[in-house]
Amino acid sequence: MRVLILVLALAMSALASCPNSCSGHGRCTRGDLCECFKHSDETTPAYVGADCSQRVCPYGRAFGAIADHSDDVSHIELHANSNFDGTPHAGASLAKLVVDTNSYKLQRSANIDVRVLSVSGTTVKIQWRLHEHGKYSQPHDATAGPTGFANQVELTDANMLLPDFGVASHETGIKVYFEDTTGVNENNVYSFFIDHQRGGAHKVGEPNTAHQFTECSGRGTCETSSGRCQCFPGFGGEACQRASCPGDCSGHGICQTLKRFVKDIGLSDFEYSLPWDAEKVMSCRCDVGYRGPDCSFIECPSGADPMGGADGLGLNDDDDMTDARDCSGRGTCDYSTGVCDCYQGYHGERCESQTTFV
Questions:
Q1: Residues contacting residue 156 through CB under 8 Å, at least 6 positions apart
Q2: How many CB atoms lie within 10 A of CB 20?
Q3: How confident is the model at residue 152 (pLDDT cuts 50, 70, 90)?
Q4: Tens of pLDDT along 267-301?
């Protein structure tokens, strides 16, 4: 029979001193745990870490689908069990201790000890401790029987563990229980290590699940000592929230948002402001005389094809648009110099003249 021991979630109540006095960036709660300060919205944390020493970087709307906590991976390593005095015992098998991270997710790795205080039938009283804090918690009364386990019990201040080290609010934690109580004795200590790999960093469940607000917009890494985002190549902004223009437009243009481009072309009946990429995707608007994705190409003189061919828009001359062909369509442009190299039989600055043979 499975006996639920406790739900280890993300807070605890017990008077104690906190690590590093919460670095001056949080308040010390009962149980050696720091409650780190949040931003003015009272939702987004400003600092994280066991001692609130790590700064949280700016948030921006994600460019793509950012993984959520359903993608988290928690690898459990059970260590040798012992007696409270440190001597090994040949009692309950480690296999009887079950650490379940499926229903509640952690946001960090942790070394944890569970100490059995008493066993009475299917009722067990335990304490737990984090290795980094050193002190054991106040005693916890076990919730006995499979019904309690199936219902996942009600989380209360009396049976919560681990401060929130993540960057969002989640119902997170772990469950610990025994398959049965055979060989589980007073003063047995069960030690385990959880190697946690976080799959995502934002709160799930919002309508726009593909572009949630997340740290560094999912396009950079957070430097926790300074709270600054280190953006991946091709992205910029304090939260890496926008794409960078190639080569900073080579000094021959300005970097504009899609929203600005739509406005500049004069579509008065269309405002491009609601789509998620309106102010995130950037492109170069080149100065006169330059072109290319990074405005690095020097334009060559252009004009109408002296042989009457289609103009640069793929149209015939009868559209009165005859000046859109580089080198008049009778030469190639050297974009590094902006000089036309005319085909044989043509000449002129823009290859607009045909050689006449007499």
A1: none
A2: 15
A3: very low
A4: 666 778 888 888 899 999 999 999 999 999 999 99
The full 3-state SS of 218-267, as one line of letters, equals HCEEEECCCCEEEECCCEECCCCCEECCHHHHHHCEEEEEHHHHHHHCCC
Cα angle vertex 110, ends 107, 114, to 5°? 120
The model's pTM is: 0.50
- The CA-based angle 257-211-69, given to 5 degrees, is 150
Model confidence over 1-12: pLDDT tens digits?
444 444 444 333
Name residues whose C-beta falls within 8 Å of residue 218's C-beta, 6 or more positions apart in sequence: 62, 63, 64, 66, 201, 240
53-62 pLDDT, tens digit per residue, is: 888 888 888 8
Q: What is the 3-state secondary structure (H, E, C) of the chain?
A: CCEEEEEEECCCCCCCCCHHHHHHCEEEECCCEEEECECCCCCCECEECCCCCEECCCEEECCCCCCCHHHCEEEEEECCCEECCCCECCCCCHHHEEEECCCCCCCCCEEEEEEEEEEECCEEEEEEEECCCCCCCCCEECCCHHHHHHCCCCCCHHHCCCCCCCCCCCCCEEEEEECCCCCCCCCEEEEEEEEEECCCCCCCCCCCCCCCEEEHHHCEEEECCCCEEEECCCEECCCCCEECCHHHHHHCEEEEEHHHHHHHCCCCCCCCCCCCCCCCCEEEEECCCEECCCCCEECCCEECCCCCCCCCCCCCHHHCCCCCEEHHHCEEEECCCCEEEECCCEECCCCCEECCCC
CA 8 to chain centre: 25
Q: What is the pLDDT of residue 224?
A: 86
Question: What's the confidence (pLDDT) of residue 196?
Answer: 53
Using CA atoms, how far apart are residues 39 and 59, in angstroms rounded to an integer? 12
